[in-house]
Design a protein that fits this description.
Rossmann fold, 7-stranded mixed β-sheet, 342 residues, alpha/beta, DNA-binding, elongated, transcription (chains A, B), DNA binding (chains A, B), 3 domains, homodimer, DNA-binding (chains A, B), 5-stranded parallel β-sheet
DNA sequence: TTGTAGGCGTTATCAC
DNA sequence: GTGATAACGCCTACAA
């Protein structure tokens, strides 16, 4: 009645422990007849391996690294916090997690940092950087060393990664489009679209997604060309002021990426801007406050805790060559209002 | 450099393994002087117990039961599926999970079923039933046997549970209210509120939450008295037809509980009902289809996978007397549109 | 190709 | 009070 162990299998199959082990782990040749008997016994008794006991015996510890953009960024900060927490929580689970900050804006710097990774003592890397040919090559090199690589938050579609952990930004943009359309149900007007930089593929995909839904389902709304403000408060302020006069029918602002603080500041400065629908991405200290104060109507977010834990689970599954429960690893596109802010 | 073990502690403290164990687990009296030395060594070497090795040695298996409403119910079905999946996934983690279906409508039947639980071979129970005095007493009895009890999905505020795993239905109602208000941004009119039964405290709390937000933030909207249709398609159809004539300013339908299929059918039958905002709770086959078809504008949901895994983690933590990471166990109130439907 | 013996980090059972 | 010693379920030499 108790869970069967390798001993039970061995007895049931009339062979020794090591033979059972060999067929279970495909280590060496076993006479077909014996292999069959073992498999039959496994089947009959419903044996499932105790992975913890196995890891204990193997003295295995998983070593994972998160490669994250450095520098001040509210969203990345929430990720760093989540990684730390997860690392702490998993320490007793035989996994060590470290953070490697990189200058995400400089492809060469990224590669240089990636090359400092100790490929011998490493099991997996979760990488959150923009994809460039250099990065792609560096990743190929890491994978050749037998290390598992997951694209984290930003997909790396042209690189050979084991997995992508993050949301589909096209769908996130569609979600934004749908919210804009539903929030402006019977209204006509234009939508200001801002982001810090369209270099990030995230913003591009969100823009496409939003455009698709707005133009198809809500043609009475018009999304204006994307305004980029390269970390320049002055620029966005002026642009916003200009947009207001240029588009008296402005009904909404859609902030696709980082720079929400600047955007909100600018909105506040233009005191005549009232009753605009404001939608932003990512739950940070800034957007959280924006929701609470009623300055932001909705935030489209991904749960960073899930993001990190999913990356960890996926890397472990890859290491153990076990299957992933896709449903659990699907990162949700969340919609947050003040009322369901947690 | 490697993780210190009890052996290291013993050597460092100049005592035996057993003494270390006694100090670590407070089993028997140890001479204060030795206890101090052990504690100091633990501190110095940064020892943390390997819980998996411990569980292995203890031969511990966790036995958990989910007590769930039986009978046809789309939402419960999704939970059952999630429990099965989680049970399968955790089988190798030394946890056995079983499902006990109960006739949730009959307090005496619930108690009768609960009494069939084998309190000797059980570690924890997750209970999803309406709270009644009988249920409360039965739970007290289970807890007295040293078994951990978590209220699951529906809170049991007057019972002595270890924890509640689920969303705050008042907040869920507030979220619905906010969505209604934002979807009907500049409109005036009334909102039809339906549910299968207001006996469930979930519906009551959602109603309160919705009312609060609507009356405070969107006074131009008026939420009509709750209509209950006890699994009676005919009733809701007639009621809806009646409501339409009685309230020509009807702008939205808010379905607070189960019975979404019936509600949608009725909406379809009243073909003259067009352009109503429809908000429902819980992601099931029905609401999923409703979203896809554009019949439902938004669904307010709780992720059943998280619900189940959280309950499991909490019960384990209670068994091991370890701390819970509150942030991880917080169940989100999710807002699902067609675009972020997964 | 197969089996035996020992160890992984912890707990449990004995004697001392 | 204390300390050997043998489990727990699995893996890995090494020997046969």
């Amino acid at each position: 009645m108790a869970k069967p162990t390798v001993h039970d299998i061995a007895r049931e199959a009339g062979v020794s422990l090591s033979t059972v082990d060999r067929v279970l782990n495909g280590r060496a040749d076993v006479r077909p007849k014996n292999a069959e008997r073992v498999k039959a016994a496994v089947e009959r008794l419903g044996y499932v391996r105790d992975t913890h006991a196995a890891n204990l015996a193997k003295q295995r510890r998983y070593k994972f690294v998160f490669v994250l953009p450095e520098g001040p960024n509210h969203f990345v900060e929430t990720i760093v916090a989540a990684v730390r927490e997860a690392g702490y929580a998993q320490a007793s689970d035989r996994v060590d997690v470290a953070i490697m900050p990189v200058n995400a804006g400089d492809p060469h710097a990224i590669v240089a940092r990636l090359q400092t990774l100790d490929l011998h003592s490493l099991d997996g890397v979760a990488i959150m950087v923009p994809e460039t040919p250099q990065v792609r090559d560096a990743i190929a090199h890491i994978r050749e060393a037998g290390i598992h690589v997951v694209a984290f938050v930003s997909d790396l579609p042209n690189s050979k990664c084991d997995h992508f952990v993050g949301i589909d930004n096209f769908s996130a943009g569609q979600t934004a489009g749908a919210l804009l359309g539903k929030f402006l149900r019977n209204e006509t007007g234009s939508i200001l679209v801002v982001t810090n930089s369209m270099v990030a593929r995230d913003s591009i995909e969100r823009r496409y997604g939003m455009d698709e839904v707005v133009s198809r389902d809500f043609p009475r709304l018009r999304a204006l060309p994307t305004i980029e403000f390269y970390d320049d408060p002055q620029r966005i302020r002026e642009t916003l002021a200009h947009a207001l006069t240029a588009h008296p029918d402005l009904k909404a602002v859609y902030s696709m990426g980082s720079g929400n603080a600047v955007m909100l500041d600018a909105l506040r400065d233009n005191a005549d801007v009232k009753d605009l629908v404001v939608i932003a991405h990512d739950l940070t200290a800034v957007t959280r406050q924006g929701l609470t104060d009623g300055e932001i109507d909705a935030v489209i977010a991904q749960n960073v805790g899930h993001l990190v834990r999913s990356a960890l689970r996926v890397m472990r599954a890859k290491c153990d060559a076990t299957v992933i429960f896709e449903a659990q690893e699907q990162i949700r596109i969340e919609i947050i209002l003040r009322e369901n802010l947690y």
